[in-house]
Design goal:
By secondary structure, the chain is α+β, with helices and mostly antiparallel strands. 51% of the residues lie in helices and 14% in strands. The chain has two domains: 36 residues; 35 residues, no CATH class. The chain is built from five helices and three strands; from the N terminus they run E-H-H-E-E-H-H-H. The protein has a three-stranded mixed sheet.
């Protein structure tokens, strides 16, 4: 394992992140511990529950409210099409 000080890791963080993403063992010293850099898989199926404690019912209710708000804004002519250029939206 390549072990780095926080200063050394920070000075070339992109390089070390790429190395870890490619399977190289990289660790950063934190006090008397080594914190490993490793890729992780994010599963969206339970993300809201794990990150926010939101139940399936909470998510369903939020989804319904968001859908209703979008429909209301669409009917009121308040939605703008996104062309891919954020500057276009900010200019109005």
């Amino acid at each position: 394992m390549q072990t780095l000080s926080p200063t050394k890791a920070r000075s070339n963080l992109t390089f070390w992140l790429k190395a870890a993403a490619c399977g190289k063992d990289v660790g950063i010293l934190y006090g008397d511990q080594i914190i490993a850099l490793r890729p992780v898989t994010v599963e969206s199926a339970d993300y809201a529950l794990r990150e926010y404690g939101a139940s399936e019912n909470d998510i369903r209710n939020l989804s319904q409210k968001v859908h209703e708000e979008i429909q209301k804004n669409r009917r009121g002519g308040k939605l703008q099409s996104f062309t891919g250029n954020i500057e276009d939206l900010l200019a109005d």
